[in-house]
Write a structure and sequence with these properties.
heterodimer, A: Thrombin, subunit H, six-stranded antiparallel beta barrel, six-stranded antiparallel β-barrel, 6 helices, B: mainly alpha, globular
């Protein structure tokens, strides 16, 4: 008994080793399966603040480019306003029903918020992004993330002031997409390697489409409304079992130089609930 | 003793910042990532106790994990390296060295230091990439990643050792 005890005491670092490795494995597994480990990601407050400071410094060097793109975007928006005004005028002239439908278009309960990326990667096996808004700003897991060009990803975990985003460039990313102008839809999968491409893996063979067709969100999930651009079909081949098409999609979003994003929340109902609760309390 | 610990904590913080802000962001050819923070573990004195080695390694790995969104992976690999470090260092230890020497070119000669750190770093990367690529990767990609990352980290380890040697 004494010798066993002595042996255990002498080799106590073995137990520490096993314990620490055990903790590591729990972290690995829990991060992959549950959304509870936000403390151990770059969305925690300390890591988020460090990355935010650095990205603030970096942004000064990119101001000129940023400015150019804003001017361009501004012009585009002006054009769009003009076009919408014309359309609106048309609706006002026509029947009341059409006017009602036109006004209904903007009230679908989707809410947009802007956020900035403070940390991102694009060339690992699984990529993540950290943005500078969190649950305090009303963000929740499972909200969609876009930028001016199209879909970026989905919020995975939120802390108070930061959120972790799963961009399209992650094997966990799984967004239902549709080829524009057709009804054929499929999940968009990323295979590690290239930040420019993702894959629609099981498009039905009877579907009619060709290279260059635009891929948009299908709207089957409540995360993204239908019709948000994702990419364009770049290459078509047969799937491994030959039953489906496998389409390589060139993504519209340039993940190597991404900075500002929009969060899209479909929380019309939740907002109402919260408001009613507040009124009852007061 | 306390000033020693303070220096160590300062080195930890500095090296952690350099690692997460610069080196972790660079992936050469999609395969090689340098982990210069391993130098911290390599340079802990010979008679650092096993438990202390393990805890420093684990904490450093976890810090890098938190900033890199890879919870547990660096921690597991660094802990493994901290565990085997003293066994490998024992091979290069010879009589005539002070009791509690710091591993380096001065104490165990250039050859000894290079082999010692190369073996430790290779073990670290083997565990790291095994865990990271468990589901997706091929053996060939794993081998390339381990080799290229080890070489890259060795390059930095030798450069840093060269400057501290001249001082």
């Amino acid at each position: 008994m004494q010798t066993i005890l002595n042996f255990l005491i002498k080799h106590n670092h073995w137990f520490l080793f096993i314990l620490l490795e055990g903790i590591s494995f729990v972290l690995i597994v829990s991060f992959n399966n549950y959304q509870s480990a936000v403390m151990f990601t770059s969305a925690n407050n300390m890591a988020g603040n460090v990355f935010e400071t650095i990205s603030n410094v970096n942004r000064y060097f990119e101001l000129k480019e940023e400015n150019n793109s804003l001017v361009e975007q501004n012009a585009q928006l002006m054009n769009e306003i003009e076009a919408l005004r014309e359309e609106l005028a048309e609706y006002k002239d026509s029947t009341r029903l059409a006017g009602y439908m036109a006004s209904g278009r903007s009230a679908k309960g989707f809410r947009y918020m802007s956020a900035r990326i403070v940390n991102s990667s694009y060339n690992r096996v699984d990529n993540y992004m950290t943005i500078d808004k969190g649950s305090v700003d009303g963000l929740e897991p499972e909200m969609g993330v876009l930028n001016d060009n199209g879909v970026v990803g989905i919020i995975y975990q939120t802390s108070d002031n930061f959120s972790l985003v799963i961009p399209l460039l992650n094997s966990k990313s799984n967004i239902n997409c549709r080829v524009k102008g057709t009804n054929s839809h499929s999940a968009l999968h990323w295979e590690d390697g290239d930040a420019r491409y993702s894959y629609l893996v099981d498009l039905p063979r009877y579907a009619v489409f060709e290279k260059g067709d635009t891929v948009v969100t299908s709207g089957y999930s409540s995360i993204f409304p239908a019709g948000i651009p994702v990419g364009a079909i770049d290459n078509l081949e047969d799937s491994e079992d030959g039953l489906f098409y496998r389409a390589r999609v060139e993504l519209f979003v340039d993940f190597t130089s991404i900075d500002n994003v929009y969060i899209i929340g479909n929380d019309g109902k939740k907002e109402q609930d919260a408001l009613e609760k507040k009124i009852i309390k007061e | 003793m306390t000033s020693n610990t303070l220096t160590r904590i300062r080195n930890f913080a500095l090296l952690a910042l350099v690692q997460v802000l610069i080196f972790s962001q660079i992936h050469l050819f999609g395969y090689a990532t340098a982990c210069v923070y391993l130098i911290f573990i390599l340079k802990l004195p010979r008679h650092t106790s096993h438990n202390e080695l393990l805890i420093w390694s684990f904490l450093f790995g976890l810090t890098v994990d938190i900033f890199g969104n890879t919870p547990g992976i660096n921690a597991a690999a660094a802990t493994t390296m901290g565990f085997v470090r003293n066994m490998i260092l024992a091979i290069f230890t010879h009589k005539g060295l002070p009791d509690d020497f710091v591993p380096g070119a001065r104490s165990i000669k250039w050859g000894g230091y290079i082999v010692y750190s190369a073996v430790c770093i290779a073990i670290f990367y083997s565990v790291l990439f095994l865990l990271e690529l468990f589901t997706t990767g091929s053996i060939a990609a794993l081998f390339i990643s381990v080799t290229s990352s080890t070489l890259l980290t060795m390059l930095f380890a030798i450069v840093i050792e060269f400057f501290s040697y001249r001082k």
